[in-house]
Amino acid sequence: MTPGKEYLSSDEIRPLAERSDLMGAWLVLHCWGTIAAAVALFGFWPNLLTFALAVMVIGSRQLGLAILMHEAAHNALFRNRKANDIVGEWLCGRPILAELSAYRHYHLTHHRFTQTEKDPDLVLSSKFPTSRASLKRKFTRDLTGQTGVRQLAAQIMMSVRLAGDHDAVDAAASDFAQAFKARDLFKSLPVFLGIIALMGLIGDWWWGLAFWLLPYLTWFQFVLRVRNIAEHGATEQSEDPLRNVRTTLAGPVARLLVAPYWVNYHLEHHMVMHVPCWRLKEMHRRLLDKGLANRMRIAPSYWHALGEAGWRKA
């Protein structure tokens, strides 16, 4: 049963779940356009500030591509299943070394068994709350590229050694963000390298390394972890859809650098998973209008969500 039907009627859910091809196309265009604008900003005003900003914005838009692939996995990006599959695979998933079909199977299992023993993401969320020192170590590994390099190396090794053995790939995946791993890396790698090459042709030879590989290995890994912690870290391990997941309120800066495309409305997404991301804010308002605010797990900011996960601990 869709959890949201306990709180919203079918007549209320139906317009929220309406998909739009125009909006889906705009979101994909917006994501790639933001990436291009970040590179252009550095091209026009090359300095350390615009370089750092470009890396952070592009890393957040790499997460944006993952979010839009997630939308396609739920057939919520476009009305047509084929359009979801093609765009979600080649314009959203493969550029970040992800695979739509593998992700769809993994993610729907997560929805079915959220925060129970059968949830494939439980191994991630069950680690929280933790200590502030542990979070610092994790974030340091992410921002210095250690997490990204380790995972990329592991992904290459898995693709070489375990080609075609999907069960073995799932079992051998690293302990973080395994849902986004492409089982057959060598279908995604040419797309990933092609973006690097294209950026090098547009600007200096090193632009692709600086503005695609570097964000992927650093800021993308960091915001992916922050997103994961905020969504299910330090929530109830139960079947209560209002308590086993968290919505995190996000201002303009957070939406730019950490939480693009309404990914912060994660409780609402779990309520009715086929509602498009751009309608989740409206669903949030409707749930509040039902008087559910005190029952819903809502963090006023990502800083607060990290505090619940252990940042405030010594």
TrEMBL record:
<protein>
    <submittedName>
        <fullName>Fatty acid desaturase family protein</fullName>
    </submittedName>
</protein>
<keyword id="KW-1133">Transmembrane helix</keyword>
<dbReference type="InterPro" id="IPR012171">
    <property type="entry name" value="Fatty_acid_desaturase"/>
</dbReference>
<feature type="transmembrane region" description="Helical">
    <location>
        <begin position="24"/>
        <end position="45"/>
    </location>
</feature>
<feature type="domain" description="Fatty acid desaturase">
    <location>
        <begin position="49"/>
        <end position="291"/>
    </location>
</feature>
<dbReference type="GO" id="GO:0016020">
    <property type="term" value="C:membrane"/>
</dbReference>
<keyword id="KW-0812">Transmembrane</keyword>
<dbReference type="GO" id="GO:0008610">
    <property type="term" value="P:lipid biosynthetic process"/>
</dbReference>
<dbReference type="GO" id="GO:0016717">
    <property type="term" value="F:oxidoreductase activity, acting on paired donors, with oxidation of a pair of donors resulting in the reduction of molecular oxygen to two molecules of water"/>
</dbReference>
<feature type="transmembrane region" description="Helical">
    <location>
        <begin position="191"/>
        <end position="214"/>
    </location>
</feature>
<dbReference type="InterPro" id="IPR005804">
    <property type="entry name" value="FA_desaturase_dom"/>
</dbReference>
<dbReference type="Pfam" id="PF00487">
    <property type="entry name" value="FA_desaturase"/>
</dbReference>
<keyword id="KW-0472">Membrane</keyword>
